[in-house]
Write a structure and sequence with these properties.
heterodimer, A: about 325 residues, mainly alpha, two-stranded antiparallel ribbon, 13 helices, about 0% strand, globular, B: about 100 residues, alpha+beta, Ubiquitin-like (UB roll), 3-stranded antiparallel beta sheet, about 20% strand
Amino acid sequence: MYAQMVETGVKQVKDRADMDAQEAAFMQQIDAEDKIEPQSWMPDAYRKTLVRQISQHAHSEIIGMQPEGNWLTRAPTLKRKLQLAAKIQDECGHGLYLYSAAETLGTSRAQMLDDLHTGKAKYSSIFNYPTLSWADIGAVGWLVDGAAIVNQVMLQRTSYGPYARAMVRICKEESFHQRQGYELLLTMMQQGTQAQKDMVQDSINRLWWPSLMMFGPTDDESPNSAQSMAWKIKRKGNDEIRQQFIDQTIPQLEVLGCTVPDPDLKWNEETGHYDYGTIDWAEFFAVIKGNGPCNKQRLARKVQAHENGAWVREAAIAYADKQANIKSQQSNTNKVA
Amino acid sequence: MNKTDWPLYEVFIRSRHGLSHKHVGSVHAADETMAMENARELYTRRNEGTSIWVVDSNAICASAPEQKDAMFTSPVEKIYRHPSFYQLPASVDKM
């Protein structure tokens, strides 16, 4: 997802019998669906897991502006350009909501950015794929934001209050992203030339599998998912939300008149779900480890933007200090008078 | 590289419907003017409000979780403060 394979620091899910009174009370609060708030007592591992997950989620929103920004100056019409600019601004806003939520856990914005810039913190694998054609902008909105919505709707019920509240705001805005992406593709499929229609199909061919990888590997491979579920940070398993995404996306694919590059995809009457082929997890782990098509470029661009902005940040602080000095001098003068 | 964050401001917005300002989140900014600009960009892109307050986060005094019982338990017991405590005949129960 926007946060994949978040480390919880546990070898196995902690047994209730091994908890002291404070931690048992915390789990009771979780069980009762009471939100955990910044000042509440929480286990150290819960706090660290949330910082990792929320900051990774935030970094994904911020890095996610790059593949879309790639087409901003080349949007085919002014309308599409305005829509794309609005979407990119939303992504930045989502990053900021999330950084604020993470800061309530005791980390700082500067620390999180530093962790991103030095490669210590991760962001979603999906943003390490390039946007090669204009149709990719539509496919990103439809598939990538679509996958994100499934995850984020679930996260509106996450146990940590500030994270849940950020998700509520984000979900309100994501729907626009997905609809504009789908409408863009639909316009190309219904009114476009053959070359434009081929462009849409090519885009789906490239982005389908990476979109499914966004949900992360099957849950039973690590204790992290189980622990996150016990803490109700995550409310559903990776495969469950991946299936939900596929089930809701295929009918939309059919309306477009396109296909996905999966010969095993077919409706299963018995289960009431679509069956699908095996995901190439070797590719996923390669991208996570830094060897995707755009990892180096994305990070270098982010660091460059941060460094190029240093003088602006310094100037703003210098100006604010100067204004505060003038104000305090004036108030001192008034006192003397 | 300067690794200190700009000060944190809490953002409150009044929606159009005459309700009180409501906390919506926070922004970092070098000063109040920038906090206001950032709050506008971040929290009112879709007609969410007609008025914004930004408050230095350090200026907020919050109740502590460990005082929760002392502060909030008493009203729970005072059920006679609620209209439903008073049983009235059905003919006047819409009161």
